[in-house]
Amino acid sequence: MGESSIAWVDGAVVTIDQRALPHEVRELRLATVDEVVDAIKTLAVRGAPAIGVTGAFGVVLATAAYPGDREKVELEAERIAAARPTAVNLAWGVRRALSALPSGPQAVLDEALAMLEEDGRVNRAAATHAADLVQRLCPDRPLRLLTHCNTGRLATTAFGTAIGALRVLSARGAVESVLVDETRPLLQGARLTAWELAEAGIPHRLTIDSAAAWAMATGQVDCVLVGADRITADGSVANKIGTYGLAVAAQRHGIPFIVVAPESTRDAHTATGAEIVVEERAAGEITHVGGIATAPKNTDVFNPAFDVTPPDLITAVVTENGLVSLLPTATLTGSGAVNSPATTAIAGSGTAASAAAAAGSETADPPATLSAAPSTPVAENAEGGLAAATEKVCAARKSAASERIANVARGLYQRGWMPGTAGNISERVGDHTVITGSGLSKGELTASDMVTVTIADSQPVSGTRRPSAETTIHTAVYRATDARAVVHAHPPHATARSIGTPESLRFTGYELIKGLGATGAIDIPVFPNHADVPSIGADIERHLSEHPDAPPVLFIAGHGITAWGATLAQARDRAECLEAMCELVTLTGRREI
């Protein structure tokens, strides 16, 4: 079958039996409607696009079993479509094949073969658009990506959707690693996605589903990429159980959450996610693992196969047509029909445009038999769609940064490092930084007490408070380094050590020096303190620009210390290392040992 996971051979569907992976690559031959229905129900064939195409071939088998009997064929088609109710592609594929029945059995087969041929091209176009978007939202760095369930050539027929985007990004050399959720209870991530990524040579790590949120919290994820089984008119996404939780965690931590799916997964006839029928599966999938009971006998079970993620948690939905403009609510036409969100091509993505062109046209309009209303990509609106997605990510990142800053500030206040209203903390978000407001007790700080300022000129752009008086120190560090977070505090030992000292203090021999990115010895600059804080910032920026290898900490004489890092946790840790080292100097009387 080559790159495709499904083929039509001698009057039967030939595919990979996904139940046998990763231990065995076993070919499965489906020659009857019963076999097709069973394969779909038992997940031998799974994934929305894959079951859509398989369902179409099921209609072909029905026409062969009941030649000339339209009523029987239609009944069999209904049985196939009902095999899994949540994924819209199955019913779509069945309807599309059935629509050719008036022209005869050969026309039905031709339609199914056309769907098979289209699927790989459609997936490649959607994946390329998604990869372009990821790189727009997370530019200029190797990407740490997270994916859930399986969305590769096994779940489609070729290339894949979300995994397809991983393939494109990997081919561009843009992937550092992929974190793969195991995807309980049937372990599609562990059994299938890890197998596909290994086959493609994409670096990855497997993790338990419940560790994903912690990976985001600890800065190990830049973007989440998932597929979809149904996308309603309001932009709600039904996907493998666990997707909703990932979206909540991603929004909490300001991480882009991108859904990649073909247009055939969009369902304009279902207005909202609340109307989706969520399939529940057998209790044994949870109570047993590998045939061995892991729960007491007769334990009641809740085993939904899918969940529904609302559109406000989704950064973007991307199809072969480009970026889908998600609407806050479904829009009703005068006739009461629901309009689906429009799609726009992603501007500046020549590779995506080429992939879409390869799919048959520059915009690859969906077939007329799609259950979702066809959408027309509007190139001139693409930048607006990207701007909206970018703004959504930035807003989430600012919110997450505000929460982190408030938490760290309260901790440093309790340690006596931010007495009264002293001290300030910030995090970089794009061209801005979120910073603590001025004149506030850090022990009572909340996320609403933050201000967003422009790094270039330190001017506030949002927030109800005045920005910290030391804002220019923070922005100076951001302009001169690649820091993502800055902590300015007044720990007693380090502050005392900075009084009456030369332009720098040398420390040698202390193990804590390693925590500041050096070994053996470190020279930490001491800047004079004066009332003109912008001048202090200018001195710091000039020094850091002239000394790119300067340590990520500094003293301001009699005032305190400033530390920075790739994350807020790292900036805080570096401040702790400097204060601890200064305390040891106080105890020993020696900076050099």
UniProtKB/TrEMBL annotation:
Pfam family, one: IF-2B
Active site: 229
Keyword tags: Amino-acid biosynthesis, Isomerase, Lyase, Metal-binding, Methionine biosynthesis, Zinc
Coiled-coil annotated spans: none
Record EC number: 5.3.1.23
Domain Class II aldolase/adducin N-terminal per the UniProt entry, residue ranges: 403-586
InterPro entries linked to this entry: Aldolase_II/adducin_N (IPR001303), Aldolase_II/adducin_N_sf (IPR036409), IF-2B-related (IPR000649), IF-M1Pi (IPR005251), IF_2B-like_C (IPR042529), Initiation_fac_2B_a/b/d (IPR011559), M1Pi_N (IPR027363), MethylthioRu-1-P_deHdtase_MtnB (IPR017714)
GO biological process, one term: L-methionine salvage from methylthioadenosine
Annotated site residue numbers, Transition state stabilizer: 149
MF GO annotations: lyase activity; metal ion binding; S-methyl-5-thioribose-1-phosphate isomerase activity
Enzymatic reactions: 5-(methylsulfanyl)-alpha-D-ribose 1-phosphate = 5-(methylsulfanyl)-D-ribulose 1-phosphate
Gene Ontology, cellular component aspect: cytoplasm
Binding site for substrate: 46-48, 84, 188, 239-240
NCBIfam families: eIF-2B_rel (TIGR00524), PRK05720.1 (NF004326), salvage_mtnA (TIGR00512), salvage_mtnB (TIGR03328)
Membership in a protein family: Belongs to the EIF-2B alpha/beta/delta subunits family. MtnA subfamily.
Protein name in the entry: Methylthioribose-1-phosphate isomerase
Organism in which the protein naturally occurs: Nocardia transvalensis
Gene: mtnA
